[in-house]
Structure formats: C-alpha cells, structure tokens
C-alpha cells in the first residue's frame, strides 16, 4: 500500500517520537537497527523529512533526531502525502488516469469508499497515539 520509502519514514518517525521523551535524541545507527532499515536509506529519508520540518535534528556529540510536541500531533496522512504524494487518497483503484465520477472505472464506487475510509483513518492517526500504544506494549515496531 505504501512505498518502501514511506514505510521506513513512518517507522522511523514513530521510533524517534518514542525515543524523544525527556529531550533524548537518537542517531541513525540506532534508528536503522530498531526499525530494520538500511542505514544509508533511512539517513537520506530523515534528512529530507528534517528539512521539511517533520522531525528535528541536531549535530554534534549529543546530536541526533528528535521530535517536539508539534511533530507528535502530525497525522500519518500528512507523512504519507509528503513521501508518497496524494495518489493513495485520490487515485484510481486500477491506476487509470481518466477515472472520475463521470467516467468511472469498474472498481470506482467500491474503491472510492475504501479510499475515503483509509484517508479518514490516517488523518485521525497521530504520531503520539502510536507512541502511547508502543509504551503500553499494545503494538511494536520490531519483533
């Protein structure tokens, strides 16, 4: 459903948020190890997300990535849109460019409701929610 880049971005941001408690910062090696991602790939993704304000970074011996309260209130949909674009929320189920209300594909009506439910779920899913569930051990990022 998501691109590999988006999957890594989501996992990394949730992990960073969880580790950001008490003003902690987390490095690339730690992130990579704990979300099962290639180090160079996650570094590139986080560098881009940092420039765009989805995560903060600090250089130096006590440096690393961290999140503030604003970031914790981001929706998963915001991250998906930034990394993968809006296609998941507006695209055709068959990938047709001309699919619309007036010119629907065979899956249009069914896919539209699924797509709308998915958008709503991801809009209502905030980073903080995932951190809370991880802390309660209701969910996990790595097994």
Automatic annotation (TrEMBL):
It comes from Chryseobacterium phosphatilyticum. It comes from the Bacteria. This is Transcriptional regulator. PROSITE patterns: HTH_RRF2_2. SUPFAM superfamilies: Winged helix' DNA-binding domain. One of its GO terms (molecular function) is DNA-binding transcription factor activity. GO terms for cellular component: cytosol.
């Amino acid at each position: 459903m998501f691109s590999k880049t988006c999957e890594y971005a989501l996992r990394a941001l949730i992990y960073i948020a969880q580790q950001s408690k008490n003003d902690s910062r987390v490095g690339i090696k730690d992130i990579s190890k704990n979300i099962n991602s290639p180090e160079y790939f996650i570094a590139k993704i986080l560098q881009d997300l940092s420039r765009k304000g989805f995560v903060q970074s600090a250089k130096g011996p006590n440096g690393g990535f961290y999140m503030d309260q604003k970031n914790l209130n981001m929706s998963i949909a915001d991250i998906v849109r930034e990394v993968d674009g809006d296609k998941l929320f507006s695209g055709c189920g068959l990938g047709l460019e001309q699919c619309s209300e007036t010119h629907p594909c065979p899956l249009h009506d069914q896919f539209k409701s699924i797509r709308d439910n998915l958008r709503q779920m991801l809009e209502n899913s905030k980073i903080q929610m995932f951190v809370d569930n991880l802390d309660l051990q209701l969910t996990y990022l790595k097994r």
